[in-house]
Amino acid sequence: MSCATPALPPSLFTNGSLSSPQNVSMTSLNNLVKVSDSGGFKWRLVIAYDGTNFAGWQYQESPPTIQSMLEKALIHITKLERKELHLVGAGRTDAGVHAWGQVAHFVTPYNYTSLDSIHAALNGLLPKDIRVREMSAAVPEFHARFSASSKIYRYQIYNDTFMDPFQRHWAFHCAYKLNASKMREAAKLFVGKHDFSAFANATREDGMPDPLKTISRFDISQMGSLLQLEVEGSGFLYRQVRNMVALLIQIGKEALNSDIVPMILETKDRRELAKYTTLPARPHGLCLVSIKYKEDHLKLPLDCPVTSFGRHHTITRCKLPFY
Question: What Gene3D superfamilies does the entry give (predicted)?
Fold first, then answer.
């Protein structure tokens, strides 16, 4: 590895200060880069976002997406082109869907000696409804999407006569009284390895994805008027979670019995589900909570900087002279 330490791109600075609300010194950022003659370095991000104002994760120039906003910030900081960053997300959430534990990776031709200032700069450039919670080095084998062993999604339903205005962006309002016990009984029938073709919407992006998925748990908890449906699985087909929730809502209304779940699964036909619920559950109730990975793919590479979880601001005490 070369010992050269070139300055970071001048586009990151305006009159010697970071062009964002986070003020990071020129000297500290200049000392963070080490150029390498190897194939480059991979970086892992854990990201939280409120998806209300975005057209999902997947990159597109307009309207804005989570990926496009992240790439814009990374391009500004690294001075690399989009095709050089190779930013990849673990889950391509739909428009209006939120995340607390989305994971992505990108690559650079140089190493960083510290990540705290880069992390602060990245959050300073992002809009307030997107935040990078964690930044770390990653081994070459790590892939945000293909290294995942399971994903956890949570769907929130506000079950009362009127909607709590403080929950309106993050929970679906259902004014029908739902039977949570019936929903739990039906949710357990999704657990196991099944062909979920009947619960997948068609998409052209993934070709012919494997419809066999394993659901390890599907829990339903109730806190007052708020119902939380949390499902963990090896992977999910396009809109599978929202389609499963839509059926569970119908069961909670007692319009259907729980034995409808294995019957629809057995058909492997999306048209069968459409007989009982035509549309997936609304996107704003859904959140990608976390993603679990193969342990060997989460190992940190040798000679890498310490993982950054952000840093607290500190107050420098002013020392007054004695008189």
Answer: Pseudouridine synthase I, catalytic domain, C-terminal subdomain, Pseudouridine synthase I, catalytic domain, N-terminal subdomain
Tell me: the pLDDT tens digits for 61-115?
888 999 999 999 999 999 999 999 999 999 999 999 999 999 999 999 999 999 9
Q: Which residues face 173 on adjacent strands?
A: 158
DSSP state of 297: G
Q: What is the dihedral of CA 9, 48, 193, 212, to 10 degrees?
A: -40
What is the CB-side half-sphere exposure of residue 191 using CA atoms within 13 A? Answer: 13
Q: Count Cα atoms within 13 angstroms, Cβ side, for 30.
A: 9
Write the DSSP symbol of residue 315. P
Burial (CB count within 10 angstroms: exposed 0-12, middle 13-18, buried 19+), residue 77: buried
CB 57 within 8 A of CB 65: yes
Taking the alpha carbons at both ends of the chain, their separation in whole angstroms is 55
The pair of three-digit structure tokens given for residue 187, joined into one six-digit string: 């949710």
DSSP code at position 308: B
CA 88, 91, 95, 99 dihedral sign is negative
E-state strands within 109-197: 110-112, 130-138, 148-159, 172-174, 192-195
For 236, the 3-state DSSP assignment is: coil
Catalytic residue ranges: 94
319/323 Cα distance (integer angstroms)? 13
Is the previous residue joined to 301 through a cis bond, with omega within 30 degrees of 0?
no
288-314 CB burial, b ≥16 within 10 A, e <16? bbbbbbeeebeeeeeebbeebeeeeee
Amino acid 8: pLDDT: 39
Largest pairwise CA distance in the chain: 88
